[in-house]
Specification:
With 122 residues, the protein is mostly helical. Helices cover 74% and strands 0% of the residues. The chain has one domain. It contains 5 helices and no strands. It starts with a helix and ends in a 9-residue tail after the last helix.
């Protein structure tokens, strides 16, 4: 189960990272206005998601990558708050916007699960 969970988290991160390059306009529109260099930050976060996802695939690097995922999810949380406060940026029912916030916490907990040492892990 742990292996499958790590692979799913890796897939999520890789897909999310790729989406930063395929649909940067979506990510640009949810960037909080107080952050500088929106385009650069979107691409940097996409690269980080890709790299962390790839590192999760490697058992040797998975714990370090999981900590990176936690840090990245915390770092991008202001974009989710900004989207919640400006729901017109992404037309969806208010409940969808509200649920995105705790969903980020669930992803953080998911990544934290992979920061613990297990038998057979370095």
């Amino acid at each position: 189960m742990r292996f499958l969970s790590r692979m799913l988290l890796a897939a999520f991160m890789i897909i999310a990272g790729v989406m930063h390059f395929i649909r940067p306009a979506f990510f640009l529109q949810i960037m909080p206005p107080y952050l500088p260099a929106h385009r650069e930050l979107v691409f940097i976060s996409g690269v980080c998601e890709l790299l962390l996802g790839l590192l999760l695939l490697r058992k040797r690097w998975s714990r370090t990558a999981a900590w990176g995922v936690v840090a990245l999810l915390i770092a991008v949380f202001p974009a989710n708050i900004h989207l919640f406060q400006n729901q017109h940026l992404l037309p969806a029912p208010p409940l969808v916007h509200l649920l995105r916030l705790p969903l980020q916490g669930i992803f953080i907990l998911w990544a934290l699960r992979h920061t613990r040492r297990q038998a057979g892990y370095p």
